[in-house]
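Re: [help] complex structure
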Amino acid sequence: IIELADVYKEYIVGTVSTMALKGVNFKVYEGEVVAIMGPSGSGKTTLLNMIGLLDRPTKGNVFFDGIDVSKLNDNILANLRNTKLGFVFQTFNLVNRLSVFENIELPLIPKGIPRRVRAEMVKEALARAGGEESWLRKKPNQLSGGQQQRVAIARAIVGKPIVVLADEPTGNLDRGSAKMVVETFLNLNKSGHTIIVVTHDPEVANCTEKIYVIRDGEITGEFAPNKA
Amino acid sequence: IIELADVYKEYIVGTVSTMALKGVNFKVYEGEVVAIMGPSGSGKTTLLNMIGLLDRPTKGNVFFDGIDVSKLNDNILANLRNTKLGFVFQTFNLVNRLSVFENIELPLIPKGIPRRVRAEMVKEALARAGGEESWLRKKPNQLSGGQQQRVAIARAIVGKPIVVLADEPTGNLDRGSAKMVVETFLNLNKSGHTIIVVTHDPEVANCTEKIYVIRDGEITGEFAPNKA
Ligand SMILES: Nc1ncnc2c1ncn2[C@@H]1O[C@H](COP(=O)(O)OP(=O)(O)OP(=O)(O)O)[C@@H](O)[C@H]1O
Ligand SMILES: Nc1ncnc2c1ncn2[C@@H]1O[C@H](COP(=O)(O)OP(=O)(O)OP(=O)(O)O)[C@@H](O)[C@H]1O
Ligand SMILES: [Mg+2]
Ligand SMILES: [Mg+2]
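Output below.
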């Protein structure tokens, strides 16, 4: 469903150039659950931004459903992203002036869903992410770090996107809350959604079908989960 | 060195009240290395904010070096905090319009340290946190999540504060980087600094002398690390 062919990504800051991705070839098929692991700074977020159509490569091609996205203009790309993809950001990226309810509801607004149905979907998504209804009227910065993370997960899954991309979704969660989040992703996968998770946690990675390892901008290996 | 006596903390949002801390008694002695663990939303950050003099309790007393801080006005409290405490925030709280160098240097500015000495201290602190000199000219949002976390750690330790408080300092780090951060805290401790770490990671907690567990706003137990 998504393919990266020989993708490079360079960041230039002043005179310093960082090649965050160096010729990455990556394919994920519909309905797969995969993990991406690697040291801090190795390019995981950059790779997820490419797969999630949030950023364009410096060189190389990205295909979504066989379409070369470099041929699409920004509006069409944004529309494709908003309808097909759900993104959990490493830094949550919640909107502080909106309530938790409004934050989770955000992806549903452009879809013309009636308000009452939207409210049901918001509550269900938050419950599936392990959240509590008492959070809905709060602002994000009136929640703990791990509570904000689960609101970000709820927002990513509320529209039931075909592909869910999660960047370190359990970094601020205790073991029990992390397990619940993983279970939600696996349940979504059972109903056909594709899940791609960047994680430093081997216990999360071992719940997936395939683990890709990235090191210094290159995918160095593909492993089966260690179900030991 | 820091003592909490029967501390309560209540957050009121509209009509909803959350009692984040319910009668916490907590003592940390000079030169100790302790961990605080507990489920997401249990009150760890709120507790660390009390210990770190960043917030005042709704009820109960906090003593720093035997002084009841409720008797101190905000200016004196801020001065005490800036000279004696180093804080690693759960969400890093780096200043995006300043370079990484300027961010780490920030705690040194009020201390009248000559510029050349400050530059040495900034580089040493970043190296000890596992960072690289190539980051110094970047802005924080031009770094990866785990790289930003290590800049936040460097900023907390650069002034060699008597007490270092770290809120989930390894959430965005791979195993190797996390070990290096823990080692830096333990080295600081060897030279007499007091270290208090909030963490979800048992491997980090097991490197400390004492593990406090908090659940739903109350400290429910104190454990010895499992050196198994
Ligand atoms: N500014 C605030 N306003 C209202 N409620 C708050 C505020 N900050 C925290 N809370 C609430 O207080 C409780 C404790 O929050 P705290 O941030 O201390 O938890 P935590 O143990 O650090 O959690 P995590 O592991 O997820 O970071 C939570 O239920 C949270 O929703
Ligand atoms: N906006 C940017 N400008 C310049 N360099 C960047 C930018 N974003 C990332 N980088 C650099 O690109 C490299 C890869 O960053 P990336 O965020 O993809 O790593 P990561 O694997 O997600 O790390 P982490 O596990 O710490 O989140 C890093 O060296 C980083 O400093
Ligand atoms: Mg990242
Ligand atoms: Mg917290």
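The first helix of chain B runs from residue 44 to 51.
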